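Title: Prediction job returns without error message
Component: structure pipeline
Severity: low
Priority: P3
Assignee: unassigned

Description:
Job completed but the reporter wants confirmation the result is attached to the right record. Sequence as submitted:
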Amino acid sequence: MSEERLQKVMAAAGIASRRASEKLIEAGRVSVNGKIVTEMGMKVDLSKDKVTVDGKALRTSNRHVYIKVYKPKGMLSDIGGQTDGRPTVAELLPPGVGRVFPVGRLDLNSEGLVLLTDDGELAHRLTHPRYEHPKTYYVLIDSFPGEEALNRLRNGIDLEDGRTAPAKVDVVDAPPAGLILDEGYRRGTWLRIILREGKKRQIRHMISAVDLFLHRLVRWSIGPVTIAQLSPRESAPLIKGELASLRDMAESKPRPRRNTDRPAPPSTTRRPPPPRRD
């Protein structure tokens, strides 16, 4: 084996994502050949170096786990850490699955696709901001948005943690077939939003910023992988085609930097439906 950076080796072994591995190193929880390492930059070769995390030896595996789950509303997408007794997506995993971590989190009140894997390198490439991989969401709001609100959502909105990147936002007649509809909210308007970034609670803040009320937020896909055929609380291993497509996307080159001075052009939007007559 050749030498690789310590955090990359840890991620590939399924300890945690690369960023989380860096935090473990900084916290003094990682040792190489009996010596604690706290700084980035060290390279190791597991064929000759002994790496331990919290005293447990690091081992590599050529076989990784890739699972998609439909996280329902009211469930945490984190695994491990402080949950305060709340349910997590760990409850949705098939029996016998070892240590995995989520690729892209969803907040407590959102639902939809969460990918879980022990492949730290793939997870890193899927979540690192510079790659800008697309994620598709279906959002149910209370009323039909005006063209001004839609263009603000598309071109970027100033939030507390910075301006959002241009997004693809369209009004759709309905979400994809197979998505279970809530009877109480069928009279609202559905938006399809495709993001290439992931600020915390981003869509909720975007919708609020244009004075719309959000009823439901569903992540339908991460790149080519969708929750089609899954019901809330169900899980399934990625099939070969899904995994191959996901890897192809992850291995693509980072997208060129955007020119943030130029707003994205507005796209066409269907006319609002006529008022219902009961």
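Comment from assignee: result matches the submitted record. The mean pLDDT is 84.
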